[in-house]
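Data availability (excerpt). All sequences and predicted token strings are deposited with the supplementary files. A representative entry, U3 small nucleolar RNA-associated protein 25, is shown inline so that the format can be inspected without opening the archive.
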Amino acid sequence: MVGKKQKLSKKIAKKYTLHRKYYSDTVSEFSSLNPFQRTKKSDKYAAISQKVNAQNQRIKELEEQQEQDELEQEIGGDVDTLYEVGPSSYDLLVKSSQDKLKLRLKQLEEQEKLEKKLEKNNKKRSFSDIKDQNQDEDEDEDEDNDIEEDVEDDVKEDVEEDAEEDVEEEEEEEEVEGEEEEEEVEGEEEDEEEEVEEEDEEEEVEGEEIEEVENDLNSDIEENEEQDFTDVYGNKDDKEEEEEVETNKTLEKLKKSELFENTNDNGIYNIHFNKDITSKEEMNELLLKSQSLESISKEIEDIGVITSIGCVDYDNLINENKPGKSNQKKVKEQKESILPNLKNTFHDYDIKKRLYKPWLKSKTKKENELYFTNLQKNLFPIFNEYRDLLYTEESMKNHKSIFKLYALHAVNHIFKSKDQLSEDNALINECKKLKKPEPDLRHQGFTRPKVVIIVPFRNTAFEIVRFILKLVPHELKDQVENKTKFNNEYTQFDQDQEINENKPDDYKYIFRDNIDDCFRFGLSFRKGGVKLYSTFYHADIIIASPLGLRLVIGTEGDSQRDFDFLSSVEVLIIDQIDSIQQQNWDHINVLFENLNRIPTQDHNIDFSRLRNSSLEGLSSNLRQTLLFSSNLTPELNSIFNQHCKNISGKIRIKKIKNGEITNIVPSLRQTFHRLYLDSNDDSKIRFNFLIDNILPKFVQQGENSGILLYISNFFEFTMIRNYFRKEAKSYVICSEYTDPKAVTRARSQFKESAKTIMLFTERFHFFNRYHIRGIKHVIFFGLPQNSHFYSEILNMITENDGSIISLYTLKDKMALERIVGTQRSYKMLESDKPTHLFSN
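Structure token line:
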């Protein structure tokens, strides 16, 4: 065998010949795949496969480089690495539903098999049962005749007994209905049917007074239309209202009263508001002490990241003021801000006993001793410690939990101040009777209003007042003055403005019922009941919209304006700030400028009872400010930093964002281009980039239809509109001031590609939420403040080959975080490249 050439069969030779030809591109590769060299064949295959993989990798890199070159030509910038967004939330939902359907189908198949077996068994049994039934029929007829005779005798007795039982059951049901309300869990909406039934019951009780009140209503509306400020000062003929203060009782008699609770001298309310601050220097020392504390943060599940800034430890202050041996121990010096101190009972929070029962009646699920939801459990310690709060995670799901909680806090604060005043008056009366010198009790402000609540629409104001009336059950319904007038003014709405069911859920919640944005009224707590429409100088709580309050406050130079009633505000609550920003933010700025100012006129002020901090004009440093919004914006952040100077510190709460880009259904190429600021005017920088770089690219590519230009600022809208009008561009307009007929015509022209560009404002989208058809490309001239608007606009695109270009600057940092996510936004802002591409 040695020296002879090795032979192969024809079949094997043909196989290896074809194999060598298929895998060989060169002569060397063909010879290397010699079948006679079997020991080296595996190594050769591995080498060739590596070569093929390397070649494919080079092709992929060339394709990516080509894509980046195209983007640079299209956008005019350096593009960063592609960000893979991954499957959208819609895709994940579809996959999960498919898995559930498969499991459900299997269960149905198993049920069908069981049913078939049962049918067979039932058929066999039915044949045997038929014979038995025929035999029993005769016996049953005889028994029925006997039973009928007995029934006729007992019917009368049963009817009488049933009637008595029904009356008793109805009485029990009425009591239970008054106690039971639907379970309130964070993330779920409350049942509205029960609330409607309660309203119907109240209207039936007040039905006899409707005619008289309607006559008063017509006259009041005419007076309100005139700018005579009757809701601020009252009519000239009206007598001055007296506060609910026990002036003739001694302290012992006062303590026996059911509606009075002795104030805790060492409580947080007393420590915060009744500090003896006689000069601005003392206040500055307290502020410096608070600012010197190191800020700390903590992430709480389902709540977010809580950041504590300058929060003083009140427990240490309470221990310092306690008498006895414990006071001799030195309290540790505080170096860092503290987080909210969670407590377990109403007594620990100094909630008035009058509020225990009504609050518990508003709940059905006992999650803890306080009947608080998880969100309420974490927010109320901040309220109770009188810290400032900026909460930017409000939504339609947790809004009711929030406004019910701050309504409880507001009423509790009013009760504390009233009990404090009653106690002071009783002490003075005792001293007068005993002919002792009167104590120096300075626990009052310039004017009576203590709490101001700002909301955007009447629908929210109505729900807040309705809940406050539930918290004061000892006040009889027929003693609540002007209640029918309030129901008529704050529940009636134009039926022509009924909301389309296809609108988003948040839109249906915001614009439910009455959405009038000009209103103001006062609430006062008296012996006879809660009075609605109290004049401002005799009200304890003022509820208003920004516009309604601005008409009273006015501006410098107005002939008739007043802001003295805001001089002694101790708790300021602003809710649904994301909606207020779509109205006019300047009203909020004017409100803060006029808060806690020394009055310009004498409003029957008893200066002997006035706090020294009020006399020195330092009340703003004691005021608690609670801000609630679904978005954190530069305007809101500026208010929190500049006007919230509470000596007790402040708290921020926000969640880590996943990004709105995960909620986009179509597969789109999303480009974010960062512009660097040379000055404070970022609008001109964006405008120049739009005119010089973006619009010419669309012209070069031959895109002459389906371009939507999203503009978040009305000033920027007017600047772009004027340019388009001057250059005679092909465009249509959809803004908040556009006539409805013009909007319909513009949408039609844009859909049919008769016009190239649509100028589309954020406020127009907020108030209308139209589905715009015909969109191919979207240019965001500044990022939307409401992040879900970004996904709503992009989900209107039906074609997957559309392009999305978003311009942003460093001022849009907060909006960028909500859209792309927290981690991605940090990478984008730290990157040296100005352009970033996202694809899903």
